[in-house]
Amino acid sequence: MNARFQFVLCFCAVTSVLLLTLLAGQVRTLRVEIRALNDQVATREDLVAAQAPEMRLLHEEKCTSCHTERRFAGEHNTRGEIDAAMVHMQAMPDAGFTDEDMAKIHASLTLLRCARCHAVEKLRGLSLRTPEERMDLIRTMMSKPGSGLTSDEADEINRAYQQVIGF
Amino acid sequence: MSEHKSATGPGGRLLYLIAGLGIVIALWRFANGIGAVSNLNQGYPWGFWIGFDILAGIALAAGGFVVAALVHIFGGERYHPLVRPAIFTAFLGYLLFITGLLVDIGRPWTFWQMIIFWHHESPMFEVGWCVMMYTTILFLEFVPAVLEKYKKTVWLERWRTYSPWIAWALVVLFTIALIRTVAWVVAVGGVLLLFQILVHRGVIRRDPRVPTLLIIAGVLFSTMHQSSLGTVFTMVPHKLHPLWYSPILPVLFFTSAVMTGLAMVIVEATLSARYLRRPPESDLLSGIGRGLWWALIVYLGLRTLDLAVRGAAAEAFAVTPQSLAFWLEILVGVVIPLAMLVSRDSVSSDRGLFWASLLVVIGLVINRLNVAITGIHAATAERYVPHWMEIAVSAGIVSAGILVYRAVVRWLPVIEEHQHADRTASGRTGAHGRPAGGSQP
After folding, report:
1. Which long-range contacts (CB under 8 A, 24 or more apart) does A137-143 make?
2. pLDDT tens, B212-253?
3. Which residues pair with B376 in a beta bridge?
4. Residue in chain B lying closest to A11 (CA)
5. What is the CB neighbour count within 10 angstroms for residue A62?
6. Torsions phi, psi for B193 (to 5 deg)
7. Once rounded to an integer, what is the mean pLDDT over residues B350-369?
8. ipTM of this predicted complex?
């Protein structure tokens, strides 16, 4: 066997072994990934993440550039205080809020009643329910001790949700 | 000396020119800062100098400890003529690497701080100490060449007596600095002390040419140093491409250094034989070539299995600059030399052996540049292409190294045949004064 033939033979053999090992590695990785797949193809949370529209809380864009987040949390966001604050801010000469902005900011501040206890992602998941189902849920919340929600506020929250989510 | 190629021939003049240009640019860098001569930026603070001068340069200097261990520890006596050239190449390589590091880091007047302030958390601390210690050991291993040249018999005897103790002290100091555990210091110091006492008492055979403890210290520091350069890059798993990042990067750096050390011995022996116009040590080099073949097999096996087990194999088949660089490195540096060395004819042919070894060396340089540059993802949008002045500085360092090598080989008894000639001449005059069997350290 001459040297040139040995070179070609060895080159091909080594390259084949190298490629085969790398390919075996890829197959192994694929098997591990397949084994790691969930039995349930998608959970409810996965569907919500994939399907539910983004929740855009406009007060975070329009208000927090001048006021801190803490200003919007707490008891003072209830029972007409939001309306009073909105009227006050709209009267400000430099605020420049349109009526559409005002409606969305109002809705967004109203939903803070829920966001005090529930994460935004949880609220986002409600978009997969019908307005009636959401209302039932808000009523369930009303009955919880310490919620402090009235039936008027429950209606307002439901409307605010539809306003924010864009239905 | 007339039979040597002239140092001032066209090749020699070109080397002087490149070295001179490198020195001028290095001085320019110290005067105007690193930004004046390099394209390094916040995304790529390490570039061509680290990849070429340091990562590749250190690996290319591995021949010193590999051949020294082969001869003085594993009993490969017949390779003895290759020891001193390999040690000299390693010593020179480390000095050049330190020069490159000084140009890269700058502010050389602060280097002493590493000796006083110990930062145990930093792999760079270990790298720095290993360089310091191993360069000292290489100096001790090489100093007999100077003593023999000037027939300093008394100093040579003192070197034989004291150098193992200096090596012992360095290893113990290193253990204290790096580990700071009494148990480890006592264990390491105790074992080496016991070894030296047994050698002194004649229980363990005393090597008349070089104290074995000196070789052991050299192997220890070099092994740790070669691998710890890989350890440095295990700190950046988010930044280094999966084709090169690996938890076993220190092992891969060490094995590739051993492999390249063997290849460098062949390249350096062939080129110096050509320069000195004498036949190369073909029978010895073919033995080294067979060792190189096995080293290539081990490295390729480790590298391939590592990629396969880590699940990074898919990256090798993606069409990206990184995958192209990976295949270039593997094919040039490992697969082609492996195929070349499989034939008995190639291993016993000086030419085949030289080209296969040169490819291994080139492959190693590509590998280290891939780790330092190609495989690095910068978090910022910045990109890095080496500035011509960065390349000129490195080329200047290499040229200066070749010029120094040529000068020293003509001046000192580095190459075996040169020593024989020297010995014959001094034997005639009866003034050489070298002890029997002590032709080399």
Report:
1. A141/A114
2. 999 999 999 999 989 999 999 998 888 899 999 999 999 999
3. B240
4. B339
5. 19
6. -65, -45
7. 94
8. 0.73
Measured between beta carbons, the chain B residues lying within 8 angstroms of A14 are 300, 335, 338-339
Mutation pick from B243, B315, B330, B342 vs chain A, by most beta carbons of A within 10 Å, is B342
Q: How many CB atoms lie within 10 A of CB B116?
A: 6
Residue pair B88/B265 in contact (Cβ under 8 Å)? The answer is no
Q: Provide the pLDDT for residue B440.
A: 35
User: Given pLDDT bands bounded at 50, 70 and 90, which one contains residue B379?
Assistant: low
Q: For residue A41, what are its two tokens?
A: 């193809």
Q: Would you tell me how many other CB atoms lie within 10 Å of the CB of residue B274? A: 14
Amino acid at B337: P
CB B104 within 8 A of CB B49: yes
Report yes or no: B268 and B91 within 8 Å, Cβ to Cβ.
no
The predicted-structure confidence for A71-101, as pLDDT tens digits, reads as follows: 666 555 555 677 777 778 877 777 777 777 8
Residue of chain A whose Cα is closest to the Cα of B313: A22
Q: Is the pLDDT of residue B436 over 50?
A: no
Task: Write down the residue that tokens 């490629």 correspond to.
Answer: A19
Kindly calculate the radius of gyration of chain B based on its CA atoms and give it in whole angstroms: 22
For tokens 């680290």, what's the residue? B50
Q: Which helix (H) or strand (E) holds B207?
A: none
Structural domain spans, chain A: 2-37, 48-165
Distance CA B294, CA B341 (A): 10
